[in-house]
Every structure is written in structure tokens, then in C-alpha cells.
């Protein structure tokens, strides 16, 4: 891990959810490492990666948890929602069934995640337009009804991947700054990872580097 | 009787294993019967696990010979004597019955490559000195294929077939071309589909596909199949079916011991994770405490270790070596599906604990994120392991299990 990666002002925990095979792991590897693997093994349990983003001069560490999509893992993946402030709900635009399951995933989030969690609907695999099974208009309509933002991405080409993650982080950042709440403190993270152990640090307040030194 | 020189307790008088353990015990200066110190494996002051690994390279074996197929791994001295015992057993099999328990004792520390396929079949109980047993089992599997397998490529349970054949199979073992050839893809998908149909409480669960890979490597490899290239040396369709049958029954025997790890809500995995936490607080309290402090939950870092039986965390050659021990454990503790409390799953818990102990110095230096990263990418470290490193983990796990486990002692 690069040293500069260790310094941050805020830590946002995000979760990647959605049916098996929609490309969650590749969205994550594209966003955090700019990599795409045609054959990445199925995710078992949870895997995670981080990336720092700049927001209004502050460093926000996006800690993204990639979960297993298969139904059998639902019981444990819901445990990973704890403390998440954002969720990317991914479906495959070429597989209708993965879109039809979006409602089930939303229900899942309502039951297990924080009620204020920011959710973004993501239609992945736009690199296969000839196989499209879900129209943009239809997905946008669903997103509007559920009050979600909607992005279409291609983890393969990298199209819109950066934009979607950044938009979600920006959304959380702006909600947090409007509400003047301590986002990092409300996020479930190990104590020493919270800026200043985050009892009630107002947003924009003094930030403390990560426990082991940070950039200075 | 072999005694552990550190604890003064008798080691199990298993040929090879007992001697090996006694030697290991002598090397580790114990600080009391319940506080056996870990071998000094790590460089303190560094969170870089690859450095830890460099310290653990055995100088006697060049790194280049540690990779590749299991056949390419040179046997350790302790293994050599067991290998020759197994060879003697099979050479005399016509006149002298092979005792299952003796075979398990020897194979526990690694089966000789040329008798591995036969040894595994015997340890699973599908082969014996009576050749009719294996023939009957293989014929029975063909009946299962007719009855439950997808007919002309059409499966009755489409969602399961879709998950196996369309979603998971193409991304199975991407580093092994031998797992992606048409006969092997057909074998893997059908085997899993039939197993799922016969075990409706589990069904197909992602991750169990990983268990099939070392089985294919051994049973097809025994017929000359090359996992690294996918060249099949003229294996006939009928022979592929025999391979599939052997893989199926071995797979079934392994998963029977872990069945509740794959049922709804996966209670077996949660139990094993609780036991791992409990075991760690006995054998490596500082690691447990540190992980608790930084918030690295075992559910985050070790779920896959349980779900895929560590097979994703090791290179193929060591997966095979691990299964030598696991199948021997199964033969020793019995194949009962009720054995989940104290049989192979408990041993697996201690193997996970011993593996965590291997990385203890790295963990103790790491914060939350580094701990999760380290333990989710153990494979980058174990890729350069040889038999010696794994043998040490397995022996340590055996020792700890005998030392620390008694009914009710670990929280269930």
C-alpha cells in the first residue's frame, strides 16, 4: 500500500451487491486498480479494496466491500452491510433476470442496511449493446421510482466506472456535509481507522492520519 | 510410544508422523504444556508478509522445484519412508490385504504420486482388494448420470445448471488450462449438478467447484492428463467417465464431512469460525487479541478458508498434498456425516489456526486493512511454498488439536 494511500480525512464504507456474474468484482478492480480479468474467480464471502478520492480538498477513502452474489450467501453478506454509507446495486444489462432481481436486493438493503444508505443502481456490461435486454429508459424509470441514481458502465472498457463510483462518493459527501454529521464516525470501521476516533468530529474539522503514520 | 519432548505428552504413534512431530517438538522450546511456542518464523518489525516467507524458505530445496504439478515436488525425508511403505503395501496387495488404517497413517504425510489415485479411492472406501468394488461403484455412477445428469445438454433444474455451467465454470481455475478443456468442463459441470441434485439441502454452492480441481488433477492426471496444457494422451470417453466417477465419490466423501457448511445460512461455517476464534485464543492469544482490536473479524478474513477448504489459498500441488492428509483424516475418523463436531472439520479449524500462526508477525504489525488484505491474499505467499511448509502447518494443527480439543472446550 502506497504511503499516500494511508492518509485520509474521511472513510466511507461502500458495498457492491447484485446477482452472481454481473461483474461486481471487475467493477471494483477497474475502479481501484484499473484492471479487468476476463476470468476472475467467483467471490466467496467478501473481498475488499480501497481508493482515495479528493472532495473539496479533502481526502475521502472509499473502502469498498465486494460481496458474493449467490443466494446461499445472502445470510452472511447482509452482515457486511453494517455501517455501510453507500451501496452500488449492480445488474447486467444483457441479463434480464439480474435486473428483475433488483427489487429483491433493495428489500435486502432496507432490511439490513442503515436507512440513510445512499444507493446507486448500476447497469453493467454496456460493451455488449447487441445483447442488451434492459433498456436505459426502463432502468432509469425504476431508479426514479425508488429514488436512486442510475449509471450504465462497462468494467471491460472502463466506461463510466470512475464516474459512477465518484458520483456515489460525492453524493454521500454532500449529504454528510449538509447534515453536518460525522460520516466517518457513523460508518462501521475499526476504532483507530476513524479520524480522531470520531466521537463527534464535525465535517471539515481536524483530521487525523491513519494509525500508522500517514503521509508525514 | 513417541513422546513430545516439549510437552512430555505422547504423540500419536503413527509412523512418520509421530517421528516428524517429535522432531518438530524438540525444535520448538515449549514454555509449558499449554503454551507451546510457535516456531520462530517471522521477521518482527515488518508487515510485509513476503519477507516472512523469505525467511521460511528451506535452503535445501531450490524454489524452482516447488512449483508445478504434485509429481514434480520432491518428497521430504519423512515422506520418503512413508512413500516406500505405501509402495510396499501396493506391491504386496495381491497377497496381503492393505489395512486402511495403515494406509491412512502413511498417506497422512503425503501419498506417493504413482499410488495417489488408488490410495484416495481406498481412503474413500470406493476401492478395495476386491476389484469388483471399484467396477460396481463406477457402474453405479453411470446410472446416476443417466438418471440425474442433464439429458442432451438440457438440465431439469435450469437455475442450478445456469449457475454451474454458464456463470461459474468459465471462470473456474483460470490459471489452469487443463480445467477448461471440453471433457473436463463436461465432467465438472455434470458432477456438481448430480451432487447438487442428490443433496437438495445444500444444492450447488459457489466455492465447492474449487474442491473438484485437485480431484481432476489426480484422477485424470493418473491417466496421463496434463493439467498445465490440457493434453489428454488419448483418454477415451469411457475412461473419462471412470475419472468422473472417482472424482464424484471422492468429492462426495469430502463434502459429507462438511455438509452443514453448505446448507441454508451455512451453520457449519459459523461453527468452524467460532471454533477457530476459540482455538486462536488458546494457541495464539496475541494474534486473536490484535485481530479483535483492529476489528478484523474472522468472518471477513477466513470465511473463504472454510467455504473452499483452504484450496483457494494454496497452489494446486499443495491442494493435492492437503487432500492426502484430509482424506487420511476422514479414513481415520470415519465417514459419518455426524462426525462434523470432531472429525475432519475440527482438524480443518486447527489447520486454519496454524496457517494464521504462520502469518502472525505480519498480522501483529498490520492494521485492519492490511490484515484483511494479507489474509485474503495468502495465495501470493503460498505460491512459493513447498511440501515442507505445508507439512509444518499440518503437523502443528495435529498437535494443537490433540492438545487443546476436548468436547466442550472450544465454544461451539
**Using DSSP, what is the number of strands of chain A?**
6
Cα Rg of chain A: 17 Å
Task: Output mean pLDDT of chain B.
Answer: 82
Mean pLDDT over the residues of chain A = 83
Distance between the termini of chain A: 15 Å
Give me the CATH superfamily of chain A: P-loop containing nucleotide triphosphate hydrolases
Which residue ranges of chain A are poorly predicted, with pLDDT under 50 across at least 5 consecutive positions? 183-216
Q: Per DSSP, what share of the residues of chain B sits in E-state strands of 2 or more residues? A: under 5%
| CATH class membership of the domain at 47-64 and 263-404 in chain B | Mainly Alpha
Strand order of the largest sheet of chain A: 2-3-1-4-5-6
Region (Disordered) (chain B): 57-84
GO molecular function (chain B): GTPase activator activity
InterPro entries (chain B): Rab-GAP-TBC_dom, Rab-GAP_TBC_sf
Biased composition (Low complexity) (chain B): 59-70
Any key phrases for this structure?
heterodimer, A: 216 residues, alpha/beta, Rossmann fold, 7 helices, disordered C terminus, B: 412 residues, mainly alpha, two-stranded antiparallel sheet, globular, disordered N terminus, GTP-binding (chain A)
What does this structure look like?
The complex is a heterodimer of chains A (216) and B (412). Chain A has helices at residues 24-33, 74-80, 96-100, 102-112, 136-145, 161-179, 183-186, and strands at residues 10-18, 46-55, 58-67, 86-92, 118-124, 149-152. Chain A has 216 residues and is of the alpha/beta class. Chain A has one domain (3-193): Rossmann fold. Chain A has a 6-stranded mixed beta sheet, sandwiched between helices. Chain B has helices at 17-27, 49-56, 77-91, 100-107, 113-124, 131-148, 158-168, 182-198, 209-219, 237-257, 267-283, 285-294, 298-301, 303-307, 316-333, 344-358, 360-365, 368-376, 379-382, 387-404, and strands spanning 2-3, 10-11. Chain B has a two-stranded antiparallel ribbon. Among the domains of chain B are: 47-64 and 263-404, Cyclin A, domain 1, CATH 1.10.472.80; 130-257. Chain B has 20 helices and 2 strands. Chain B has 412 residues and is mainly α. Residues 1-72 of chain B have low confidence and may be disordered. Chain B starts with a strand and ends in an 8-residue tail after the last helix. The interface between A and B is medium-sized, with 32 and 37 residues. Chain B: GO terms for molecular function: GTPase activator activity. Chain B: This is GTPase-activating protein-like. Chain B: InterPro entries: Rab-GAP-TBC_dom, Rab-GAP_TBC_sf. Chain B: Residues 57-84 are annotated as: Disordered.
Amino acid at each position: 500500500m502506497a504511503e499516500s494511500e494511508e492518509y485520509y480525512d474521511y472513510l466511507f464504507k461502500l458495498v457492491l451487491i447484485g446477482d452472481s456474474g454481473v461483474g461486481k468484482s471487475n467493477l471494483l478492480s477497474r475502479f481501484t486498480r484499473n484492471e479487468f480479468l476476463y476470468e476472475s474467480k467467483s467471490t466467496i464471502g467478501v473481498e475488499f479494496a480501497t481508493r482515495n478520492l479528493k472532495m473539496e480538498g479533502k481526502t475521502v477513502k472509499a473502502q469498498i466491500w465486494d460481496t458474493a452474489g449467490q443466494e446461499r450467501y445472502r445470510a452472511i453478506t447482509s452482515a457486511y452491510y453494517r455501517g455501510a454509507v453507500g451501496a452500488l446495486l449492480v445488474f447486467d444489462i444483457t441479463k434480464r433476470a439480474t435486473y428483475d432481481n433488483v427489487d429483491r436486493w433493495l428489500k435486502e438493503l432496507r432490511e439490513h442496511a442503515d436507512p440513510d444508505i445512499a444507493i446507486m443502481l448500476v447497469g453493467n456490461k454496456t460493451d455488449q449493446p447487441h445483447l442488451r435486454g434492459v433498456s436505459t429508459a426502463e432502468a432509469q424509470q425504476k431508479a426514479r421510482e425508488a429514488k436512486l441514481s442510475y449509471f450504465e458502465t462497462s468494467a471491460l472498457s472502463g466506461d463510466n466506472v470512475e464516474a459512477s463510483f465518484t458520483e456515489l462518493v460525492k453524493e454521500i459527501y454532500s449529504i454528510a456535509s449538509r447534515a453536518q454529521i460525522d460520516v466517518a464516525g457513523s460508518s462501521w470501521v475499526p476504532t483507530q481507522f476513524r479520524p480522531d476516533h470520531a466521537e463527534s468530529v464535525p465535517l471539515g474539522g481536524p483530521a487525523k492520519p491513519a494509525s500508522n503514520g500517514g503521509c508525514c | 510410544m513417541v513422546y513430545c519432548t516439549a510437552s512430555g505428552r505422547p504423540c500419536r504413534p503413527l509412523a512418520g508422523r509421530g517421528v516428524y512431530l517429535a522432531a518438530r517438538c524438540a525444535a520448538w522450546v515449549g514454555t509449558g504444556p499449554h503454551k507451546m511456542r510457535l516456531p520462530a518464523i517471522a521477521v518482527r518489525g515488518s508487515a510485509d508478509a513476503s519477507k516472512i516467507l523469505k525467511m521460511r524458505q528451506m535452503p535445501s530445496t531450490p524454489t524452482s522445484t516447488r512449483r508445478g504439478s504434485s509429481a514434480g515436488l520432491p518428497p521430504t525425508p519423512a515422506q520418503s519412508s512413508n512413500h516406500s511403505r505405501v509402495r510396499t503395501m501396493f506391491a504386496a496387495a495381491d497377497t496381503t490385504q492393505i489395512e486402511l488404517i495403515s494406509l491412512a497413517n502413511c498417506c497422512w504425510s503425503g501419498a506417493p504420486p504413482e499410488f495417489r489415485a488408488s490410495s484416495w479411492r481406498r481412503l474413500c472406501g470406493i476401492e478395495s482388494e476386491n476389484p469388483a468394488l471399484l467396477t460396481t461403484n463406477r457402474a453405479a455412477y453411470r446410472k446416476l448420470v443417466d438418471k440425474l445428469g442433464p439429458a442432451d445438454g438440457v438440465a431439469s433444474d435450469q437455475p442450478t445448471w445456469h449457475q454451474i455451467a454458464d456463470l461459474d465454470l468459465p471462470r473456474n481455475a483460470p490459471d489452469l488450462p487443463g480445467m477448461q478443456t471440453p471433457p473436463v468442463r463436461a465432467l465438472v459441470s455434470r458432477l456438481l449438478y448430480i451432487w447438487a441434485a442428490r443433496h437438495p439441502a445444500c444444492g450447488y454452492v459457489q466455492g465447492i467447484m474449487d474442491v473438484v480441481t485437485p480431484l481432476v488433477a489426480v484422477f485424470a492426471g493418473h491417466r496421463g492428463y496434463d493439467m498445465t496444457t490440457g493434453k489428454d494422451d488419448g483418454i477415451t470417453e469411457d475412461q473419462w467417465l471412470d475419472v468422473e466417477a472417482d472424482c464424484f465419490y471422492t468429492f462426495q466423501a469430502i463434502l459429507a464431512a462438511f455438509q452443514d457448511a453448505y446448507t441454508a445460512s451455512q451453520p457449519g461455517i459459523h461453527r468452524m469460525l467460532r471454533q477457530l476464534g476459540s482455538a486462536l485464543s488458546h494457541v495464539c492469544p496475541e494474534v486473536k487479541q490484535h485481530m479483535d482490536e483492529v476489528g478484523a473479524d474472522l468472518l471477513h478474513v477466513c470465511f473463504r478458508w472454510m467455504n473452499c477448504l483452504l484450496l483457494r489459498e494454496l497452489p494446486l500441488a499443495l491442494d493435492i498434498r492437503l487432500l492426502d492428509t484430509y482424506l487420511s483424516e476422514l479414513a481415520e475418523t470415519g465417514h459419518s456425516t455426524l462426525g462434523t463436531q470432531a472429525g475432519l472439520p475440527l482438524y480443518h479449524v486447527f489447520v486454519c489456526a496454524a496457517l494464521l500462526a504462520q502469518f502472525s508477525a505480519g498480522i501483529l504489525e498490520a492494521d485492519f486493512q492490511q490484515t484483511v488484505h494479507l489474509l485474503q491474499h495468502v495465495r501470493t505467499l503460498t505460491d512459493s511454498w513447498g511440501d515442507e511448509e505445508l507439512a509444518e502447518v499440518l503437523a502443528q494443527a495435529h498437535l494443537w488439536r490433540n492438545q487443546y480439543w476436548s468436547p466442550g472446550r472450544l465454544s461451539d
